[in-house]
User: What shape does this take?
Amino acid sequence: MTYLRRFGHFWYDFVIGDDWVVALGVVVALAVTWFVTHHGRNWYWLLPAVVVILLVVSVRRVSRRSGS
Amino acid sequence: MKSEILLILAVVLATAVEMVEALTIVLAVGVTRGWRATLTGVGVALIALVVVVAALGPAITHLSLTPLRLIVGGLLLLFGMQWIRKAVLRSSGFKALHDEEVIYDSTRGSALEAPRGGSFDGYAFTVAFKGMFLEGLEVVFIVLTFGTSQHRLALSVLAASLTVVAVAAVGVLVHRPLSRMPENTLKFIVGILLTSFGLFWSAEGAGVAWPGNESAIPVLIALIAGTAVLLTAALKRQYGRIVASQDAL
Assistant: This one.
């Protein structure tokens, strides 16, 4: 069990890292992009916009926590 | 051609950064505990990494390009954003810089304290294997994702292999951790490249048609690099204010 947990923890850390909100945001943005492009709209701007917002939010959260 | 140059650049820089980290651990253990078990650990880790590439590489290249780019691009994007996030926090002072000298000394300290027994040093083997395999796994991931998404797996493997040899050669020559390498700057650049390519491929895999096709990649690089630079500048100012207010207390 401990081995399995460590194995799972390693992959979580490897793929998702310190901020799961970023991973969730990317997955949701990709799902929305996939949905709209398969309904005739080319929302190429969505993912870059979400990535920029997620980066800002993620590092801001760390800096606020450190500052308080 | 332009995207091939960027591919080689990303693979070489990412491999260099990870191999410098692995080299620090291997040098610390080898100098302290002896080289036989340490180099055996490194050799077994390299064989394991080659097996991973040989097993996963052909399997991934058999997938159709659209789901491959969606999944692989998505993973690359997550990976790149982690690198940028850490590089921004380190540059601005909110996270300690990766110091190879400190890591070298602490690994040496642990290696000196660990008990010895038997003719083969299991401690040295395990630490060297783990250091090489875990750092190498990140390289394997980048090599596979970049290589398969761009249909240039052989080129990607070659670029990474030559970098591993170059870093190992420098390590043998200087026999000290390569602490003068601007690790955070390199991580910054790698993070920007991984994020930009991940963005491009994953969106394409989701069905997006990029305006200008591959010409969108430099625009994405500029967008992500600009965001990272502005964020670092803003956080540096904030860190300065925090330090100043603490000094005033």
